[in-house]
Write a structure and sequence with these properties.
Layout lengths: L2 H9 L15 E4 L9 E4 L10 E4 L3 E5 L5 E8 L15 H13 L3 H12 L14 E5 L5 E10 L4 E8 L2 E9 L6 E7 L5 E8 L4 E6 L3 E7 L11 E11 L2 E4 L3 E7 L1 E10 L11 H13 L3 H16 L3 E3 L10 H7 L6 H18 L25 E2 L3 H5 L13 H22 L9 E2 L11 H4 L4 H16 L2 H21 L1 E2 L6 E2 L21 H20 L4 H12 L49 H14 L5 H13 L3 H11 L19 H14 E2 L4 E4 L10 E8 L3 E8 L2 E9 L4 E6 L2 E6 L5 E5 L7
Parallel strand pairs: 1-7, 24-28
Antiparallel strand pairs: 2-7, 3-4, 4-5, 5-6, 6-11, 7-8, 8-9, 9-10, 10-17, 11-16, 12-13, 13-14, 14-17, 15-16, 18-25, 19-20, 21-22, 23-24, 25-26, 26-27, 27-30, 28-29
The structure holds alpha-L-fucopyranose.
The site of alpha-L-fucopyranose has 11 residues, from loops.
Length: about 775
């Protein structure tokens, strides 16, 4: 069958359309003009692979748009579409085995301990459930001989992705966005000549779906989620696309909707599952998506677009960043990534920063699921690491930029997940450890599984839930909202309670330590990662206990528990400096003998970032030790691990070192053409960690002071940032020139006092809620 006939057959819906089968794209000339828009990603050609497609999302549903001319692919996601169903993976043999595991570890029989953990402690099943794709919407257009002036872009300010091209003298435009207001993905097709819009829409299905049409204009995909790890898929899901045309005709076959000679067309796509919460999958996706499509269909396209843009900009426009511009920004985005190492593109860092904020707004909004390993965007039924929540670094990193970059609301899905984990984790604490409180190990999924998974060297780590509690406290630190703190305090308290019940006394110093545990996911020199008292655990517990102590004071509650925490905190293993001058990763000085000296995880550096237990001014010896450890680990590693190092060097006030590592993050080996971070493969944590790193270079507030330009690199001699947030409830605008602060404006949201620092100079400020002050480079009131 010739290509032309195949395409005609497809267009007339005689056989189902699918990606690949009719993917003959026309001859194409890209747009050579240089728009130089500071807040757009743009390209001269369509995406040839998923990591070139552009993401849109409303926090719950998302799409990856490829921008193909003849066969457009809009890959869809819904954030509760995961494999399996409610399950409890706790290994019933764990509780009896744990005393023996502890004895083996304290006798230094680490490999034997690891074997026993594999046999009796690791969860059943050994893995957790995968996040799944919701399939593709495929649009097939009539043959085009040649196409000119092609361009596609993603505008971060409007949160709309647009494809434009000219064909036979007609200019075609396709816009796609995911509306948080109307809960639909909207695809809008127009042309500058009437009657030019003709296409057929179909779904390309993942497993177990039935595709149908309804009401003469609507495509419906009904499905069941996948089984995984022996857990049956018990969710139903539905994706529904209604095609509305202006002029022309709309016809359907059993599995496609065709539009012929319309002036314009709008496709409204809704997606939902039967997930109500981690224990209940009795929802009615059909009722949900029907309601959403019907609601959106009542509005004009212009109204849908205006509502969407306004809601996006409410969050996005809170922060602006200018690091300077150059001719480099006139290039297409993929070309800028390739060229970045040649220097002279300061604006790319600002674009990366704003892309990170765009991604967080698009994948983590109140009411939805938190950002997983790929945020919201995944084209597979079994993505890398199942695109779960890896809580030994990756999930936390996703939320590092949130508060500082003025997106506090975006943390709400994470807080809701931690609340769920405090319930499932209470069962795990009780059944596995016979302990009160709650525990979560190194991973979780939609079903809030909290047991140790994968194997002892990855899963046998009890501090995931405790680390997540940092974000509960940070929300209070940045907002000062006591009502909120009252709600989350019991969750923080429960996390601390678990450790009060399970810490063990190590024989040498009589410190209280976690056991069994690991320093994620690094093997020590004795044949395993399993150990007692890795530094990271003491550091996390130090913060958890301190935050609970502070919270109980703010709320004036729980005095006995507070005392218990203070006493236990005093007996945690301290930060130690090893024989090579390094910050020690384990209880003993094993660092120099560990098999992977350049391991991607820098778990013991938690004390430097995200924690503030190590600071250059407060603990200079430890800060030096942290430098030794960071230098030994090296700068070049996986995407997220590079991002962690940027934040650490910013905390050490070394802007040029932080910038040189940023350079590695922007390398094509770590940044895909669509600017998604490459572990590789795609993992979104590097985007968020990089965004946080850029913010940390400009502003820090973890020591009780608001520190301005603490790690400004020489590559950004002049610039301006507005809207960053500082702990204590402050909003900061600052400008600099010649590498020096020129002025700063500080607005108080919470009405608290603050010390402002620039280099060695400090200034006390006292502001009422809503009050603002402007200071000059001397930190004196600006005239
Ligand atoms: C941790 C990391 C890996 C990867 C995975 C999702 O296990 O060590 O590099 O990021 O999470």
């Amino acid at each position: 069958m010739s290509n032309y006939i195949r395409r005609l057959v497809c267009f007339l819906n005689l056989i189902p359309c699918s990606v690949g089968l009719f993917a003959a794209e026309p001859q194409l000339t890209g747009n050579a003009s240089a728009p130089g828009e500071p807040l757009s990603l743009w390209y001269r050609l369509p995406a040839t692979r998923w990591e070139e497609a552009l993401p849109v999302g409303n926090g719950r549903i998302g799409a990856m748009v490829f921008g193909h001319v003849s066969n457009e692919r809009v890959q869809l996601n819904e954030d509760t579409l995961w494999g399996g169903g409610p399950y409890d993976p706790v290994n019933p043999e764990a509780r009896e085995a744990l005393p023996e595991v502890r004895r083996l570890i304290l006798d230094a029989k680490y490999s034997d301990a690891a074997k026993l953990i594999s046999a009796k402690v690791i969860s059943r099943p050994v893995g957790q459930m995968p996040y799944e794709t919701a399939g593709d919407l495929v649009l097939t257009f009539p043959d085009a001989a040649s196409v000119e002036n092609y361009r596609r872009d993603l505008n971060l300010d409007t949160a709309v992705t647009t494809v434009e091209y000219s064909e036979g003298g007609t200019r075609f435009t396709r816009q796609v966005f995911a509306s948080p207001v109307d809960q639909v993905v909207v695809v809008h097709l127009t042309a500058d000549k009437k009657g030019s819009i003709s296409f057929a829409a179909g779904f390309k299905a993942p497993e177990k779906v039935i595709i149908d049409t309804e009401s003469g204009d609507t495509l419906v995909m009904r499905g069941t989620n996948g089984d995984a790890q022996g857990i049956r898929g018990t969710q139903k899901f539905q994706v529904r696309a209604r095609v509305l045309a202006n002029g022309g005709t709309v016809t359907t076959t059993s599995n496609s909707v065709a539009v012929t000679n319309a002036d314009s067309a709008t496709i409204l796509i809704a997606a939902a599952t039967s997930y109500k919460n981690y224990q209940d999958v009795s929802g009615n996706p059909e009722a949900i998506v029907k309601g959403q499509v019907a609601g959106a269909a009542k509005k004009t396209f212009d109204k849908l677009l205006a509502g969407h843009t306004q809601e996006h900009q409410r969050l996005f426009r809170r922060v602006s960043l200018d690091l300077g511009t150059s001719d480099a920004m006139k290039l297409a985005t993929d070309e800028r990534i390739k060229n970045f190492r040649n220097g002279q593109d300061p604006q790319f860092a600002a674009l990366y920063f704003q892309f990170g904020r765009y991604l967080l707004i698009s994948c983590s909004r109140p009411g939805g699921q938190p950002a997983n390993l790929q945020g919201l965007w995944n084209q597979s039924m079994n993505p890398p690491w199942q695109s779960k929540y890896t809580i030994n670094i990756n999930t936390e990193m996703n939320y590092w930029p949130a508060e500082e970059c003025n997106l506090g609301e975006c943390v709400e899905p994470l807080i809701a997940m931690v609340k769920d984990l405090s319930q499932t984790g209470a069962r795990t604490a009780q059944e596995m450890y016979g302990a009160r409180g709650w525990v979560a190990h190194h991973n979780t999924d939609l079903w809030r599984a909290t047991g140790p998974i994968d194997g002892p060297d990855w899963g046998m780590w009890p501090s995931g839930g405790a680390w997540l509690c940092d974000h509960l406290w940070d929300r209070y630190e940045f907002s000062g909202d006591k009502e909120y703190l009252k709600e989350v305090y019991p969750i923080m308290r429960g996390a601390a309670q678990f450790f009060l019940d399970t810490l063990v006394e190590e024989p040498t110093h009589k410190w209280l330590v976690t056991c069994p545990s690991i320093s994620p996911e690094n093997q020590h020199p004795f044949g395993s990662a399993v150990c007692a008292g890795p530094a990271m655990d003491s550091e996390i517990l130090h913060d958890l206990f301190s935050n609970c102590v502070e919270a109980s004071k703010v709320l004036d509650t729980d005095a006995d528990f507070r005392r218990q925490l203070e006493q236990t905190r005093a007996r945690l293993a301290p930060l130690q400096i090893g024989g090579k001058g390094q910050l020690q990763e384990w209880l003993e000085d094993w660092d120099g003998q560990a098999p992977e000296q350049q391991h991607r995880h820098i778990s013991h550096l938690y004390a430097l970032f995200p924690s503030s237990q190590i600071t250059p001014r407060g603990t200079p010896e430890l800060a030096e030790a942290a430098k030794v450890s960071l230098n030994k680990r090296g700068d070049i590693t996986t995407g997220w691990a590079i991002a962690w190092r940027i934040n650490c060097w910013a905390r050490l006030h070394d802007g040029n070192r932080a910038f040189s590592i940023l350079d590695h993050l922007f390398d094509p080996s770590r940044t895909y053409p669509d600017m998604f971070d490459a572990h590789p493969p795609f993992q979104i944590d590097g985007n968020f960690g990089g965004t946080s790193g850029i913010a940390e270079m400009l502003l820090q507030s973890q020591t009780g002071e608001i520190e301005l330009l603490p790690a400004l690199p020489s590559a950004w001699p002049a610039g301006h940032v507005a809207g960053l947030r500082a702990r204590g409830g402050f909003e900061i605008d600052l400008a600099w020139d010649g590498g020096k602060l020129t002025n700063v404006k500080i607005k108080s949201v919470g009405g608290r006092e603050a010390t402002v620092r620039y280099g060695e100079r400090t200034m006390e400020i006292k502001l009422k809620s809503g009050g603002a002050v402007e200071l000059n480079s001397e930190l004196q009131p600006a005239s």
